[in-house]
Every structure is written in C-alpha cells, then in structure tokens.
Fold:
Amino acid sequence: MPEAAYYPLDAGSIAAWCASSGVPEDEGRARFLQVSALRSVLDDERLADYVVFKGAGALRLFYGLPRRSGDLDFVVRRDEAAQAKLHDREQVSRLILDAVKAGLPGHARGIPRAQDAAKRSLHIDVMVKPDSFDPIRTELLGDPPVPVWVATVEELLAEKARAMLRQSLDRPVGDRSKDAFDVHWIDRYLSVDWVRSGEILLRKCAAMTFDALGVYRSPEAMERVRERVGRAYDTTLSPTLWRGDEPPFGEAWDATQTVLDRMLGGVAGPPVLTT
Structure:
C-alpha cells in the first residue's frame, strides 16, 4: 500500500497540498470531503472493523488514481463475525449514512456547508454479500491515523474487468468508459499480481453465474464490449480529469485487452471455485 497521502490531511493544508500535487483546488476540496466522510464511517465501531472500502474512491485515496470520483463504495468483509453483524443491505446503508451525517461537521471543519456539498458530490454504495477477497489493513492518514480495510489493487482491477465484460450482455448496466481509463492507469503505474487478479475475477463472475471466460474467448462478444465501453469514452471521461493527458480510447482499450490477456490468457478451462 503506498505511503504517500493522496489527499489533504486537513482543510488548512488543501491549497498547499494541491500546489505540491499538481491538483486543482476544487479536486483537493473534494478529496478532503471524501476523506472526512470515510473517517466518519470509521468512527462508528459498528462499521469500522467490518467493512472494506473499495471502488474508484479507494483507487483515488489509497493508490493515487488521477480522476474525479465521489464514490464511497463499501462491502462487508467475508469473515463470519462481519457477516453475522452486517447482513442486511438497508441496515448497513443506514448506519453508514447516519455515521457520515454525525461525523462530517467535525471532520470537515473548514469546508463551507460540508453536509450540502457531500449530498451533491458523494455517492455511497454498499454490498453485503461476501464478495471481498484478502483486503489490506492500512491507515487513513490524519490526526490521528485511523485503521481501515481497503480492497487490494488485484480486486479493484477484477471488479473493473468484470464490469466491462458484462457489457457483452443483452442489457448491459451502466456506462463503463471510466473503467477503461482506470485499467489503463493501473497497468501503467501500479504493481499487480495478474494471476491473482484473474482468479478473483473468475470467482466474482461465478458467484453471479456470469461466464467471463466465455466472453473473453469470443471475438464477437469482445467486440460488443469494446463498442459499448468506447461509446461515451470522451464525453464521460473528460469532465473527470484535469491534466488533459487522457489516452485516446484505442490506447485504453489496447491496454484493457493486454490486461485481460494477463489475467485470463493462462486459464486452461473452467475455474476451480473455492470459498
């Protein structure tokens, strides 16, 4: 897990952090607000040791992903104690929302109308099914640092690959163009255990009876994925970036295909699934 802080540690340091990081101040404020909301969740003992932070928010705050995202995505850990305590999605969502509402005014001091800003910019999602593998126990930096479970880059990559491969379905869900950028960035800047990421991908897909290998091995299905992922790539991605150096879609898709080859190319047959 990188040791650098990919976010300002307090409201007073936002301008200095942005200047040293080459990040616009509105993005610095957004990251601090996101961190403040996460810290609020971790304050709640009913949640802190039982949820894993994942998604684009985790990639931003713990790995350095250089794009805007207000996502705060959580999944309940796989162990029995966590599953016994937090097994109802509505219950967990309410606990998280209440924790953010209670903690944000204190943690986001210095951000005007922090609650209103959070409502506009943060998007909270929760999964309670046992869908997380080998999360990392690390710290959210600050005064004081707070322990937090964070998804590994292998799992984050697997989820993005799964989301894109599911664009092959007759009724694909959502726009996955940002995932192509993220996969390209992961491939370029992060160290990844590709085989482990492929294993996680296949286990996640098997849990939802989705044939990821079948899609990967079908030129027609992969062409559908490429067309659908690329359809809104420029218009969707550009507003989330600030450096102006986003790769063209062809480059991002080539990287995605290469990553999938590393993850799945060595799989000889149907995966052997274990819990």
User: Anything to note?
Assistant: Residues 271-275 have pLDDT under 50 and may be disordered.
